[in-house]
Structure formats: C-alpha cells, structure tokens
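Notebook, p. 212. Picked up where the previous page left off. The plan for this session was modest: take the two constructs that came back from the sequencing core last week, fold each one, and keep the raw output in the notebook itself so nobody has to go hunting through shared drives later. Recording the first one now, exactly as returned: residue sequence, then the structure token string.
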Amino acid sequence: MSVMAPERETSSDAYQQRALGFWLYLMSDAVIFALLFATYATMVANTDGGPSGKSLFSLSNAALETVLLLASSTTFGFASLSSRTGNRSAVLGWLLITFLLGLGFVGLEIREFLGMIRAGAGPDRSGFLSAFFTLVGTHGFHVSMGLTWILIMSGQVFLKGLSVPVTSRLFRLGLFWHFLDIAWVGIFSIVYLPGLL
C-alpha cells in the first residue's frame, strides 16, 4: 500500500489565506510592541539616580540607523516591483542591498548597546534601562530574523525563480520588513527624540 503525499494547495484562495494569517501575526506583533512602548513610557523616569536618555543617546547614531532602515524599506520595495516584472536578477540585487542596509542597522544597534553596557548603563542598572533594552532589543531581534528570512528568500529566488509560491512568500516578507520600519519610526519618535530633549 503506497502512501501519496497530500497535494499542495496552490490556488489563489490558499495564498490569500496565508496572507490573512500573516496579517494576524503582524497584529499580534503590533500588540507586543504596544505593550513594550507602554512599559517604556511608564519606566522612562525611573533612572534610580543613573544615566538618562539625554546622557546616553546619540542623535547622530539614531538618525543613521533610521536612514539605513528606511533606505532598506525602499530597496525592498524595488525588489517587490522587480518580482512583478519577473526580473530575477534585479530581485536578488535589491534583496542583497536590503540585507546589507539591515545588517548595518543591526551593527549600529549592537555597537550602541555594547557602549552603554561598558559605560555601566546596562539593562540591570535601572527600570528605564531595562525598558529601553527590552524595547529596542526586541526590535533588533526582529530585524535580525528579517535578515535571516531575506537570506532564505534569496536562496529560493535563486534556486526556484519567481514562481507563485516564492512571490507569495516575498510579499509576506515585505509586509514584515515594512512593519519593522513603522515600529522603528515609533522608537525613534518616542524613545530617542524625547530622550535627547
């Protein structure tokens, strides 16, 4: 008796259901970030006599991180447009640029965290710093997972071309990547700018 593998769903309804499921995931992620923002807003004044954002944050570093992440969102948009025209090499090129911009963002964030920890302003120093590291670190973790996903998608585009399943996955990755930009704009506006003023 032979067991046949179940036939994979490839109808447009199946892809729409996956997209809907991914939107639901993004909404749950938005709730997580909303809770982290609320925690940060509650803890921002709880420095326990330690350093505050004004003495720790660098506007130039945060601005450079913002430029890198927003530029990566633009380059991902070009990758999405190239996928619609079936230009596999352009998709791979734009994904590579997006990856490098995202990697630069994560590198700057790690450098900022290490500098703060070396200065004695680690997450265990105060409630403010715990909330800061948790919020910004959670975003950085998401970007790192997005970078991993970009590598995986690049491999799929390279090996399988721009088939309907690959294009559908690329669309969902785009939703995730643009969501991270929106979350970062919130972090820049709520954490860094008020912390420096």
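Okay, moving on. Second construct, recorded in the same format:
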Amino acid sequence: MSATSEHEVSKRTRHYRDLIAWQKAMKLAKEVYRVTEELPKAEMYGLQSQMRRAAIAIPSNIAEGHGRLNDGHFRQFLAISRGSLFELQTQLELAADLSLLEARSAAALMAHCDEVTRLINGLVGTLHTS
C-alpha cells in the first residue's frame, strides 16, 4: 500500500455505518418502503419497485464506495448514490402529481432526500481528487 493510500484510509471513519450520510440514507430507504405500501397494487411492479430500488441504492452505494478504500472510487460511488437520490426525487414527484402518494408524505420524503444530498455533497468535498 502506498503512503498516499494509507493516508486516505486512515482519515476515514472505521466503518461506513459511522457515516451520518449512510445512517440518514438508511432511514430514508426504510421510510420509502413504508410509504410505498400506500401505492395501489397496480404499481407493485412499476413505481413502487422503482422507488424502492432507487432508495436502497443510496445507502448501498455509500457503503460499497467506502469499502473500496480509495478516495477516487469512493467519490464515484457517492456520485452514483446522488444519482439514485435524484431518481427517487423524480419518482416521488411523479407519484405525488398522480395522487398516488399523499402530498405531505411526498414532501417529507423530498426534504429527507435534500438532507441526504447535502450530506453526500459534504462527503465528496472531504475527498482528495487524485
């Protein structure tokens, strides 16, 4: 392991579970699972499935990127996670516009997405660009 790689690894949290972004993303995923239970059965293989897939991709990519032990790879996985967040927000907006979700539930989830986005952006800002 090179000196740079050792430095990159040593400044990180010991475990991805310690990352607030991961913790909040997990909470978001659980909330999406709960709220999407309200969707009509006809959406089980459509919007419900897509929203759940996007929601679980967010903390999953944070964890996977952290496990790569390289700032460049971690940054790449954080970008993928952020993309899944934006995908979820698009789906939430569509579900609300189609009156498939209550506007209040969708708004609360959108705010939660915004919070996770800020946390991910903060993590990206701490990584070296190499």
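Notes on construct two before I forget. The helical segments are 3-10, 20-35, 47-67, 71-97, 103-126.
Flagging for discussion at group meeting.
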